[in-house]
C-alpha cells in the first residue's frame, strides 16, 4: 500500500485540509486504492479502512462526517458528530474535532475557510448542484456561523476537465437559459456537442457570490487514471463500478 496522496491548496494554508485521490488505500480490482464510496460494490471493510486512512492523513483523531449526496443545493450544519449520512451536498461547521468529507468521481469538490471566524465548509458541485447554487448555499450557511464572504477562501479540487467533458446541445441550453453569458464555459465539440468547463463555471459562481480568494487546482479526474477515480471513464469502458475519492477540511483542536 502506497502513502495517501494529499493535495493541498495555497488559499487554504494553515487550515487542515486535503484533496485526496486514489493512492494509498487498501481496495483492489476496479476500486484499487483509496476508495471511500460506501455506495460502491467494494468490500465494506476496505471502504471503512480507507475512510479511516483518509481521515488520519488530514485530521488525525477527528470524526469523519459525510453525506448522502443527491446533487442538490442542500447544506448540513455539523454542530456535533453524527453516525448517519444525512442527505445534502454541502457541510459547514465551526466546531473542532470534526472532519467534513465530500466524495467525488468527476464532480468538483470545493473546500472553504474563514480563518478569522473559525468556520469551514465543503461542497459537492456536479453540474446539477453547481447550477442549482450549492456553493451559494454553503457560503450562506457559513455566514450563519459567523463567517464573512469577503474573508472566505475557497479551493476547487480535482474534477473532470473541459477536454474530457463532452456534453450535448440540450445540456448547453440549460446553462444558456440560466444565463446567456454561460456560453463562455462551452467550447465547440463534434456536431451537436460541446466541451464543458465545470471547474471554471464553479469558480465563476464563487466569484459572483463575492469570494475574492479562489484557487483552481486544474487536475483532471478523467485523464489521470493513476491518481483519480472517474465515473465517466468507468462508464466509457463499461466497467461494473467506480470508486470515489474524498476531500476533507476541518478545524484544528
Q: What is the first-to-last residue Cα distance?
A: 29 Å
Counting helices, strands and paired strands, the structural category is alpha+beta
Estimated radius of gyration = 17 Å
Per the principal axes of the C-alpha atoms, what is the gross shape?
Answer: globular
Low-confidence spans: none
What is the architecture at the second tier of CATH?
Answer: 4-Layer Sandwich
Q: Order of SSEs, N→C?
A: EEHEEEEEEHHEEHEEHEHE
| Strand line-up in the sheet with most strands | 4-5-8-7-9-13
How many separate domains? 1
| The CATH class | Alpha Beta
Note down, in words, how this protein is organized.
The chain has 253 residues and is α+β, with helices and mostly antiparallel strands. It has a single domain (6-161, 197-250), classed as CNF1/YfiH-like putative cysteine hydrolases (4-Layer Sandwich). 24% of the residues lie in helices and 24% in strands. The protein contains six helices and 14 strands. The chain has helices spanning 44-58, 127-132, 134-144, 169-178, 198-208, 231-237; strands spanning 6-7, 17-20, 63-65, 75-77, 90-93, 98-104, 108-114, 119-125, 153-156, 166-168, 186-188, 193-196, 213-216, 245-250. It is globular, with a radius of gyration of 17 Å.
